[in-house]
Structure formats: C-alpha cells, structure tokens
C-alpha cells in the first residue's frame, strides 16, 4: 500500500530525501543503511570530489523523481530508486571527458531513474529484481553516442580493439590483499586501496553477514581468476572481484535465500561470474565499452530464475 505524506513538513521531507539518497548509495550492495551510504560516499569523495558530488546528486535525483512522481514512498525511503541513477552518474562521469561530462552524467541519472521505474513494472510479475541493469543500458548508450555526437567525448582509455589482435598478458605478481580489497571497492568504480577499505567498513557496518560474504565473494573471484590463469594486472585492480561480490550476495544471501543450499549456490554463481566477466569483456572489446555489472546481472537473473523452478537450490 502506498504511503502518503501530504502534511509532511519541509524539515522532515529534507531528512527523508537525504536519508533515501544515502540509502540509494548503500543499496548498490544490497544494504539499506544511511551510515553505510555515507561511508561509501566518503570513499568516493577521497578519490574524486567531483565524482562524489555526482554520485550524491544522482542518487538524490532518483529519490526525488520517485517521491514527487507519486511512487510508493516505502520504495523511495529504502533507497531503491537511487542506486541505479547513482551508478549511472558515476559511470558516465568517469568514462567521459571534457566539461560536458558533468551535465551529461546528471542527465543520464534522470533517464536511468525512468528506466528503473519502467523495468520495475515489466519485471514485477517475474518476481526478479531489476538489479543494476538500468544503469548499464543507459551508460552503454551514452558512451556509444560519443561516436556520433561531438559534445559527448569518450575517455581516451576506452579504445575499441580488434579481438583478433588481442594478447593475454599474464605477467606480474599477484597481490592477494590488493586484489581482494579493490575487488570490493570496484563495486563503486573505486580502484584505490583505502577507498576499498572504507567501503568494506561501510558494508560491515550495514551487516556483518553481508560484510562476510562480500569478502568471500571477492576472495572467490581472486582464486578463480588465478586458477584460470587470468591477467594479473586486472586481478590486482579488482576488475573481476566486484561482479562476484554482487553475485554471491544476490544469489546466496539476499534474494530468496531460504534454502539450505542457497549459500553453496551463491558460491557457484560467484565462480561462474568470473568466466562470464571474461566473455563479456571480450564481446565488448571491439566497442571499447566496459562490462560494468552486466556479468553479475546475467548470473543473478539466471540463478534466481532457476530457483523459481528448482526451489531447493
């Protein structure tokens, strides 16, 4: 049932929207906690103040569109309208360059909020969350538009490459601590070690169980990539870990995880997310696009949908 607050004072409304904004940041990692959101925001600000501001404003945009658009107020208060716009704002801001990237990032957040609402409607009967798919689609479209629209300038690090000439670089020394911590930080596009530590602290604050499985998910990714002879530089940077973290949390802890086998299934899904990440990275290489969290979304959808038919997994 929708909650109406027609007589809510301006002070209470500001507090509600502020809380929903921070929870929108924390909901990226399935936590409804404003303190967690604040700690994550601090981690992002330490790495880049402009990107941190974009993350905050983007989550606020999602909350405001949901609140003033007449959405179920409970959903807005939980931060569920903020996490996709927040991710879109960050993704677009760091993958574009030039002065136009800031307004484009905020515009992307607005569009993502509407895409999120639309997908919530389409997937309601399926009983499967939309996860981060709205931000992925919007961000990909914005980045691809840069090839046709001069005002949208792609970051030079995103260079389309011919897959036939691609070479696997396995040299280097694997740093377990670095790979594990950065794999957690990369959930929010943060490759810095200390940003990852602060994000992990925020996750543990939001729930020790989620904190534990966040560490397990990143460790599983490290072990799997190392065992499959993946690129050490990508492993140390945490670029395989974040999808595994989100996958194990979604499948093994948060959604329909009442079965005794749910934790095992979550671990299996996290392992599967590693070769899926490698495959999607290869698929997108000719377009110069990042995989974002699409490997997580794909794996989580498959395992949660299978659980509807095979409920004991």
Concise overview:
The chain is an all-alpha fold and 313 residues long. The chain is built from 14 helices and two strands. Helix content is 66%, strand content 1%.
Can you give a write-up of this model?
With 313 residues, this protein is mainly α. The chain has 14 helices and 2 strands; from the N terminus they run H-H-H-H-H-E-H-H-E-H-H-H-H-H-H-H. The protein has helices spanning 10-26, 34-47, 49-68, 73-77, 83-95, 101-122, 133-145, 176-185, 193-206, 208-227, 232-236, 241-254, 262-284, 294-309; strands at residues 96-97, 153-154. Strands 1-2 form a two-stranded antiparallel sheet. Helix 5 (83-95) packs parallel to helix 7, helix 9 (193-206) packs across helix 10 (208-227) and helix 13 packs across helix 14 (294-309). The radius of gyration is 19 Å and the shape is globular.
Keywords:
single chain, mainly alpha, two-stranded antiparallel sheet, 2 strands, 66% helix, 1% strand
Shape: globular
Strand content: under 5%
Counting copies of identical and different chains, the oligomeric state is single chain
Give the terminus-to-terminus CA distance: 32 Å
Separate helix tally? 14
Mean pLDDT: 93
Give the proportion of residues in helices: 55-70%
State the order of secondary-structure elements, H for helix, E for strand. Answer: HHHHHEHHEHHHHHHH
- The biggest beta sheet, please? 2 strands, antiparallel
Radius of gyration: 19 Å
* Number of β-strand runs: 2
Question: Spans of 5+ residues with little confidence (pLDDT < 50)?
Answer: 1-6
Structural class by helix and strand composition: mainly alpha
Q: Order of strands in the sheet with the most strands? A: 1-2
């Amino acid at each position: 049932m929708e909650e109406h607050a027609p007589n809510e004072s301006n002070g209470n409304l500001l507090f509600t929207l502020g809380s929903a904004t921070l929870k929108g940041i924390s909901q990226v990692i399935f936590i409804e906690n404003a303190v967690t959101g604040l700690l994550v925001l601090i981690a992002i600000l330490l790495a880049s103040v402009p990107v941190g501001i974009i993350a905050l404003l983007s989550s606020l945009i999602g909350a405001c569109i949901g609140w003033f658009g007449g959405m179920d107020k409970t959903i807005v208060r939980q931060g569920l309208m903020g996490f996709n716009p927040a991710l879109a704002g960050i993704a677009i801001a760091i993958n574009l360059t030039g002065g136009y990237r800031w307004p484009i990032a905020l515009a992307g957040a607005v569009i993502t909020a509407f895409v999120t609402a639309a997908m919530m409607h389409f997937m309601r009967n399926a009983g499967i969350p939309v996860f981060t798919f709205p931000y992925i689609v919007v961000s990909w479209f914005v980045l691809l538009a840069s090839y046709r629209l001069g005002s949208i300038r792609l970051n030079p690090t995103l260079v389309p490459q011919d897959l036939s000439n691609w070479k696997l670089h396995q040299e280097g020394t694997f740093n377990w601590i670095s790979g594990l911590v950065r794999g957690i930080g990369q959930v929010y596009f943060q490759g810095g070690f200390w940003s990852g530590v602060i994000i992990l602290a925020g996750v543990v604050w939001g729930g020790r169980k989620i904190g534990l499985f966040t560490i397990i998910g990143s460790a599983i990714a490290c072990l799997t990539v190392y065992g499959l002879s993946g690129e050490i530089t990508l492993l140390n940077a945490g670029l395989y870990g974040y999808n595994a973290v989100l996958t194990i949390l979604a499948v093994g802890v948060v959604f329909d995880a009442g079965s005794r086998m749910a934790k095992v299934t979550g671990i299996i899904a996290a392992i599967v997310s590693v070769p899926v990440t490698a495959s999607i990275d290869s698929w997108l290489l000719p377009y110069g696009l990042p995989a974002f969290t699409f490997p997580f979304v794909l794996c989580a959808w498959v395992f949660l949908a299978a659980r509807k038919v095979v409920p004991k997994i």
